[in-house]
Amino acid sequence: MTISAPNAATRTAAASDAATTGPRPRWPRTAGLLIVAGGALLTAATAIEITADVATESGPAIAFYVLFLTSTLAHVAAMVPLALGRGDGQGAVGASLVGKVALLGFGALFLANQSMYLVTAYLLPTAALTDGAMAFLVAMSAVQGVALLVGGTVIVRAGILRGGARWAVLALALVGFALGVVLTVSTIEALSNAMYFVSTGAQIIAGLVISRSTVAGAK
After folding, report:
1. pLDDT score recorded for residue 4
2. What is the distance between the alpha carbons of residues 218 and 21, in angstroms, rounded to a whole number?
3. Which residues contact 50 (CB under 8 A, 6 or more apart)?
């Protein structure tokens, strides 16, 4: 039995695709779903914070603390498979040490910054922060953003994640910077609140895209 030229061309194209794109492994799904969970939980926590008096009402306060801390842990956990893959050190940044340090560093800084927010805003709201302490917190937030930006850039350059997932983390970093600018310069509360939800919505979308991504095959 002979194979016609069109069929041969189709099989050649399919073989080429298989050589460059691997199956859908578990680590992008794990990382993506953790980011989705973190974004959804943070959306709920933000809604409670905006609509209820978390500082004085125990019910909303407990719900906010649980949702906020759980969302933080989910985002931090998502950085591990993104940076290290299935444990073989070959995640979304490939073999890049800079990318691994950036993603894992972002996770550590994000945990520290979110924890400090809870302490200064709600647990010890009357504690006076010195100018040096304030400058330190601002610097930590800036470094956190830079770390995610570097990690996202390395992911794009590595090309391990395919399609929109390749750009998802970089997009989250840019949305984070936009949120920071709005919170810094805007005096309109409604705009600041809207940007919080833009940020958490972007997290959910990015997580869904990453969770459905295939990865580049071995070259």
Report:
1. 45
2. 8
3. 193, 196
Exposure of 25 by Cβ count < 10 A (0-12 exposed, 13-18 middle, 19+ buried)?
middle
Can you give the residue ranges of every domain in the chain? 24-211
Secondary structure of residue 57 in the 3-state scheme: coil
For position 84, what pLDDT does the model report? 95
Determine the Cα–Cα distance for residues 203 and 39; give it in Å rounded to an integer.
5
DSSP 215: B
Amino acid at 205: I
Contact at 8 Å (CB) between 118 and 65?
yes
Ranges in the chain, pLDDT < 70? 1-23, 128-129, 217-219
C-alpha to C-alpha distance for 184 and 15, rounded to whole angstroms:
52
H runs (alpha helix) in 159-188:
165-185
The reported pLDDT for the residue numbered 158 is 94
CA distances from 7 to 1, 15, 21 (A): 13, 12, 21
Average pLDDT, the chain: 87
Asked whether 71 and 38 are in contact (CB, 8 A), the reply is yes
Reading the block at residue 149, the tokens are 């930006």
**Amino acid type, 141:** S
Is 21 in a helix, a strand, or coil? strand
169's tokens: 């983390």
pLDDT of 124 reads 82
| CB of 83 closer than 8 Å to CB of 104 | yes
